[in-house]
Write a structure and sequence with these properties.
The protein has helices spanning 4-14, 43-59, 73-80, and strands at residues 19-24, 28-34, 65-71. By secondary structure, it is an alpha+beta fold. Belongs to the BolA/IbaG family.
Length: 81
């Protein structure tokens, strides 16, 4: 069973993030991922990029469910006011 910190570390190692937060109960996780790599990409492309980083953990069954909110630094800044 994975912990939120493990998922956060894996994402951070594979994707340059300005902000990253992962919470969850060991089975279902939610992530807020802010990355300049998302600029010019739609929502599906952004999620595909994150899934690419986590693919091995999904394929092995170690990670089951991750809902994610992906934003560019500009979007994140605007959302925070």
């Amino acid at each position: 069973m994975m912990q939120p910190e493990q998922i956060q570390n894996i994402i951070a190692a594979g994707l340059s993030c300005e902000h990253l937060q992962v919470v969850g109960d060991g089975h279902h996780f939610e992530a807020l991922i802010v990355s300049a790599e998302f600029v010019g990409r739609n929502r599906v492309q952004r999620q595909q990029r994150v899934n690419e980083v986590l693919r091995g953990h999904f394929d092995s069954g170690e990670l089951h469910a991750l809902s994610m909110k992906t934003q560019t630094p500009e979007e994140w800044s605007a959302a925070r006011g």
